[in-house]
Amino acid sequence: MSGTSADGIDAVLVKFDGPLKQPRWRLLASHSLTYPEDLHRQLIAIGQGQPTTAAALLDLAESVTEHQAACARQCDPTGLARLVGCHGQTLWHRPPTAQRRGCSWQLLQGPLLAQLLQRPVVFDLRAHDLALGGHGAPLVPAADAALLPPIGGWRALLNLGGIANLTLLPPVTGPDRQAPVRGWDCGPANTLIDLAVSRFSHGTQRFDADGQWARRGRANEAVIRRWLEEPYFQALAPKSTGREQFGQADLERRLNDLEAAGGGGAEPGQAQADALASLTAFSAAVVAADLARGPRPLELVIAGGGAKNCALVDQLRQRCRGLWVRPLADLGIGESDREALAFALLAWWHQHQHPGCLPSVTGASRPTILGVRADPTPA
Questions:
Q1: Mean per-residue pLDDT over the chain, rounded
Q2: 61 pLDDT exceeds 90?
Q3: What pLDDT sits at residue 262?
Q4: Are 319 and 284 in contact (CB under 8 A)?
Q5: Which of 95, 99, 306, 366 has the smallest number of CB atoms closer than 10 Å to its CB?
Q6: Domain 149-331 bears CATH identifier 3.40.1160.10
Q7: CATH ID of 8-136+338-374, from 3.30.420.40, 3.30.1380.20, 3.90.1150.10, 3.40.50.1820
Q8: Given pLDDT bands bounded at 50, 70 and 90, which one contains residue 294?
Q9: CA dihedral in degrees (340, 343, 348, 350; nearest 10)?
Q10: 3-state secondary structure string across the chain
Q11: Same fold, 8-136+338-374 and 149-331
């Protein structure tokens, strides 16, 4: 799995067996591979609309595929895996509207990956849901429901990747036990923070390590409240988004808002810290606003790269008062493993011809089997 942050790849080696709807699973290994700086820079630029050539896109797809293969080999050096599920690298995501179906582009050369690994590969995992009128995202809630046990109340799982997305799992007992699983993209988690850090550091840093930079600043709550009134944050699920909406242009607009609200009196260093504090608080505020609309969960379980940002986690705890905020690792899944585990399950479901999407989450007209399979030619 490589997400909206386009900073690298997370892989897991996992064994599934038992009933398809709620299989038994065992995590055997995991590995993360960071993209080289040049590849990361290209993916971010093209994912925000920078013009390029067909030749450059072909080279980029080949490079992404080769790095996916390298990560898989390092995760599974002895070749235990019989099937590979690969999300690819999202370049562009267009949610459906009343006038037009949705579309999403995950860059990958699936047959090449199958050939490099000498394993069948299931890829292009969003397209079938999109073809049925869904958003093709988020897809992880179906896996959350299959792999994690229900508790006595609603359980919320939050991925803090480039985009923040939520899963709400119904309780094991009570009137809501038959309620459908819910899930949606809340808005930016790390995209705006990471872009701001890159800008302020002149490209020497990719992210705000431990949230230390944001901790030196003060968030502008009045501006954050105004941002929360924007149409995307007021819209109801199903909804999905990405760097297309919350990318460089959006960052520039929000930095201008903060500068105008601050009156330009702060020293440049403090102004940057205040901006990062505001963007970090904003990422937490969009999640808190969505959770406040109900149903109210008992706990918020967090994963993804943003779970390492202590300033962001502190903001979540402050703004989601009354919720037990804890790491997904408490449930036996590492913060970088959840989405890779989900796409492994989607591949396993594809192999067994089991539907992988939830219409209650994506808005598709019906459940469907996800993905396309590429088989290798024997070496």
A1: 96
A2: yes
A3: 82
A4: yes
A5: 99
A6: no
A7: 3.30.420.40
A8: confident
A9: -170
A10: CECCCCCEEEEEEEEEECCCCCCEEEEEEEEEEECCHHHHHHHHHHHCCCCCCHHHHHHHHHHHHHHHHHHHHHHCCCCCCCCEECCCEEEEEECCCCCCCCEEEEECCHHHHHHHHCCCEEECCCHHHHHCCCCCCCCHHHHHHHHCCCCCCCEEEEEECCEEEEEEECCCCCCCCCCCCEEEEEEECCHHHHHHHHHHCCCCCCCCHHHHHHHCCCCCHHHHHHHCCCHHHHCCCCCCCCCCCCCHHHHHHHHHHHHHHHCCCCCHHHHHHHHHHHHHHHHHHHHHHHHHCCCCCCEEEEECHHHHCHHHHHHHHHHCCCCEEEEHHHHCCCCCCHHHHHHHHHHHHHHCCCCCCCHHHHCCCCCCCCCEEECCCCC
A11: yes
pLDDT in tens, 263-285: 555 677 899 999 999 999 999 99
Q: Are strands 324-327 and 299-303 parallel, antiparallel or unpaired?
A: parallel
What is the Cα–Cα distance from 266 to 254, expressed in whole angstroms? 17
Structure tokens at 120: 């069948």
Domain boundaries, given as residue ranges, for the chain: 8-136+338-374, 149-331
